[in-house]
């Protein structure tokens, strides 16, 4: 689901970069320094894991983009939405800078599509309400599947809107 720089206009890229920067600022502010220090090792391990599985991608014919496993929902579940979003931002930035997976112009779009929709929309609005207060194997499976599908579909719609704008 990574978008390349060639798919978007500089206006869309700049707008989405500003939007994602605001979400990054919100996430940093949300995490208190002491909590951040306690979560940092787990964020690093989860980021490395996600980086590895997201490097396995496939081209989407005729679109100039690629698809891969999106780990935003996993990060939000394990780390919480703010820490998950920041971890996704780091992973996507490394992929853009060192592996040409996406690009700096499309970084904001990719972060919104892969990180924001999962961490700040699908996780709190789909996963958390289904899980509720009672954890069970069935609830976890249903919540995970539905939230992953919602996050994926929102990200896919984001790609369409960003490329036609």
Give an overview in words:
The chain is mainly alpha-helical and 165 residues long. The chain has one domain (5-164): Arp2/3 complex 21 kDa subunit ARPC3 (Orthogonal Bundle), CATH 1.10.1760. The protein has helices at residues 10-30, 33-54, 72-79, 81-99, 107-131, 137-164, and strands spanning 57-60, 65-68. The longest helix is centred in the C-terminal third of the chain and has 28 residues, at 137-164. It is globular, with a radius of gyration of 15 Å. It starts with 9 loop residues before the first helix and ends with a helix.
Give the SSE layout.
Layout: H1 10-30, H2 33-54, E1 57-60, E2 65-68, H3 72-79, H4 81-99, H5 107-131, H6 137-164
Antiparallel strand pairs: 1-2
- List the secondary-structure elements in sequence, H or E: HHEEHHHH
- The count of β-strands is 2
**What portion of the residues fall into strands of 2 or more residues?**
under 5%
Instruction: Give helix % range.
Output: over 70%
| Largest sheet: number of strands, sense, barrel closure | 2 strands, antiparallel
Coarse shape: globular
What is the CATH architecture assignment? Orthogonal Bundle
Average pLDDT confidence is 88
Structural class: mainly alpha
The whole-angstrom Rg is: 15 Å
Question: Main attributes?
Answer:
globular; Arp2/3 complex 21 kDa subunit ARPC3; mainly alpha; 165 residues
